[in-house]
Amino acid sequence: MQKRIGLKTLAVELGVDVSTVSRALRGDPRVRAETRVAVRDLADRYGYRPNAAARALRGGKTGRVAVLLSPPQQRFASPIFLELLSTLDQHLRDKGLNLAVFAARARDEEVDIVRQIVEERLADALVLGRTRKADPRVKFLLDHGFPFVTFGKTDWSHRHPTVEIDYTQAGRLAVSTLKPVTAGGLHVLSAPEGLNFADNYVAGAVEEAARSGAPGPKVWRVEMTEAAGTDVAARILAGRDRPAFACIQDSLAFGVYRAAAAAGLIVGRDLTVFGGQNFPGSEHTAPPLSTFSTEDARVAHLLSQVVIRRLFRDSSETGDFEHHEIRPTPLLRASHLWT
User: Fold this and answer.
1) Which fold has domain 167-294?
2) Which fold does the domain 64-164+296-326 belong to in CATH?
């Protein structure tokens, strides 16, 4: 039986990328004319025939759903995104579909990646996280009528499905749990400005402080990494005046713990801390970290179902889109308590 010739065979012989061969066979004008001719000649010589997946691609269906991971890639370590990828992959395979993961190295690459996915038909639907109000990725997808779901709201949420965690409530929860705040004041560590979930968290924290009559918190907008938490906390703890830390993510709280240890300070005696998202290991810190749960398994299952329903929705259908909001659940341990 003659061995089937694939795109990789053609690409190796011609000394080009597989993606170049694929685009050349589709007549993509971005591939040089002489390359398109060479690819087609070699394909004819070998009797190359596209497989079912390739035929589906030409027909406008790839059988894939794409997830775009936003930078920094430390975010990939977040349990909720690991849970999402695993759960979505399982749900898609149950439907005979596949998962494709794209990762941007910098934020200004994200629109280009979305454009490539749409224009080259690399997937049939897309999942986006870390949304902004006037998100350029979302605008591009809406302008091109491409199916997608966002993990977070945008200015155009009435035009696309969303799943969101109520980070405004998470900010309120952190501040209300950390009371009473002593001489060092309350410090809110959140993600960079412009990200909806981060802005909502800060708004909730500021609102709760005002409601309770506490002084306004000092807000720090940093990347959600342990290193960033360590750097900010080291500057704050230099004053040794018993501050309280509300961290949007446990990674930042872990950094606060590290800075405290380096300064010879003890959480619960010299500072208090409240984290977010219940990372693995948060219950094993000393003292155990008080945080909130985002119910990762539930969110991942829900988002997967919304993606699949959006994928099979009639493109001509109009009307309401699905919107789901998950409230954070407090996990009160010991790090928020003064001893």
Assistant:
1) Rossmann fold (3.40.50)
2) Rossmann fold (3.40.50)
CA terminus-to-terminus distance, the chain: 77
pLDDT tens-digit series, residues 273-311: 999 999 999 999 999 999 999 888 888 899 999 999 988
Copy the structure tokens of residue 249. 């993510």
Angle (CA) 122-125-128 rounded to 5° is: 105
Cβ proximity of 195 and 178 under 8 Å? no
5 burial level (CB within 10 Å; 0-12, 13-18, 19+): middle
Tell me how far apart the alpha carbons of residues 241 and 142 are, in angstroms, rounded to a whole number. Answer: 50
0.90 cut: is pTM over it?
A: no
Q: Where in the chain is CATH 3.40.50.2300?
A: 64-164+296-326, 167-294
Q: Please, is 284 exposed, middle or buried when counting C-beta atoms within 10 Å of its C-beta (0-12, 13-18, 19+)? A: exposed
* DSSP 8-class letter at 158: G
Long-range contacts of 102-106 (CB under 8 A, 24+ apart): 102/66, 102/67, 102/68, 102/69, 103/68, 103/69, 103/71, 103/73, 103/76, 104/68, 104/69, 104/70, 104/71, 105/71, 105/73, 106/71
- Please tell me whether residue 148 adopts helix, strand or coil conformation: strand
Question: Percentage of the chain with pLDDT > 90?
Answer: 61
Classified as helix, coil or strand, 25 is helix
